[in-house]
Amino acid sequence: MTGDTTDPQGTAALRPSSRVTLDDVARHAGVSSATASRALGDHPHVAEATRRRVREAAALLDYVASPEATRLAGGPTGRVAVLVPHPSRWFFGELIEGLEAELRAAELDLVLFRVGGPEERHAFFARLPARRGVDAVVVLAFAVDEVEHARLASLGVVVVAAGGRVASYPSVGIDDHRAGRQAVDHLLHLGHRRIGMLAGGDEQRLSPDPDGRASAWRAALRDAATEPDDDLVVTVPWDGEGGAEGMSRLLGLRAPPTAVFAHCDEMALGAMRTLRRAGLRVPEDISVIGIDDHPLAALTDLTTVAQPVREQGRRAGAMVLDTLRGGPPPRVPPAEMLPTRLVLRGTTSPPGVPR
User: Fold this and answer.
1) Is residue 242 assigned to a domain?
2) Cβ contacts of 29 within 8 Å, gap of 6 or more
């Protein structure tokens, strides 16, 4: 055995070669390639200890940065791309508010890219305008397919998800199954057994966990020794008009439900409009519960399961900053789950019992 293959720090095998790459430097420094690029490019949001570690690794390996490598993460642009399907909707607006507040404090700017309908979304990922130069990308509450995932990976920047688990990215959201159980278990506790469900349609993959709330409905009923009736499930868009239309369909059944679980508050509010127009009372005739704690939920006295939407955006922003400041990339990207809570108001009561 010769003395040239290793040294006390295990660095000799990585020593100079004309083919040393930025990835070699990143591996030796124990950081991601994007962080190594920022450290060598004097990015303002890289911790000094990380910057020093990367520079020492580069010097040890005789690394010389190429123009392409220095552009790996867009350089120190001070901008974060935010991919959002429907920026005008309350849920996405709340996520953006929390995210923007966290990043603004670190002097980073948000660049919003709308990826709503299928054509718009396809065009965005085909062009990927984020290549214009950003330090990170935040995906807001929609699932990405394999092609989209590969396109994002080609940027070589930090990708974080807010509003639910997306692919293998670090993310922050809620446990959709648990939130659904809180809603349906409440109705079961009141004595309801014929419980309808207004399920959010997911043709645009707007929910990272489209099955979480639906599986909660089925599991809760089975735990209550009640076999789920698929006739009581209506899949509609995630909005008030969808909820109104879905409630009409449930009322058309020979045996309508005594209670309705809506996947979001806006759908629940639409359902309440249909019930009012049909001359039915809530909750005396039919109980209604949603998920979110939308501002209109309190105004309409809607029972719901509250989720901290703005805090999810803020925590996603903190994840971006933590990664930009350096440190080793996690072996398993973190999926932070924030708690939900049942908020009792006036739209639920025992079946057939006047309030």
Assistant:
1) yes
2) 36, 39, 50, 53, 54, 56, 57
Asked, for residue 281, whether it belongs to a domain, the answer is: yes
Q: How many domains, the chain?
A: 2
Q: What is the CATH number of the domain that holds 32?
A: 1.10.260.40
CATH number assigned to the domain comprising residue 270:
3.40.50.2300
Residue 182 sits in the same domain as residue 63: no
- 83-100 core/surface letters (b: 16 or more CB in 10 A; e: else): bbbbeebbbbebbbebbb
Inside any domain, residue 110: no
116 in a structural domain: no
The pTM is what?
Answer: 0.76
The SS3 call for residue 138 is strand
What is the full per-residue pLDDT of the chain (355 aa) written as tens digits? 333 333 434 443 444 444 677 788 888 888 887 788 777 766 666 788 888 888 888 888 877 655 444 444 444 578 899 999 989 999 999 999 999 999 998 889 999 999 877 788 888 888 875 556 888 999 998 888 888 888 888 888 889 999 988 878 899 999 999 999 999 999 999 999 999 999 998 655 555 565 899 999 999 999 999 999 999 999 999 899 999 999 999 999 999 999 999 999 999 999 999 999 999 999 999 999 999 999 999 999 999 999 999 999 999 999 999 888 775 556 666 789 999 999 999 999 999 755 4
Query: Which range marks the domain in which residue 270 is found?
Result: 176-307
Q: What's the Cα-to-Cα distance from 246 to each of 102, 200, 217, 232, 280, rounded to whole Å?
A: 38, 10, 17, 10, 16
Quote the CA–CA distance of 303 and 185 in Å, as a whole number: 13
Q: Which residues pair with 82 in a beta bridge?
A: 112, 138
| Residues in CB range of 327: below 8 A, 6 or more apart | 31, 35, 47, 50
Give me the helices (H) in 164-211, please: 176-190
Tokens for 219, please give them.
């599991």
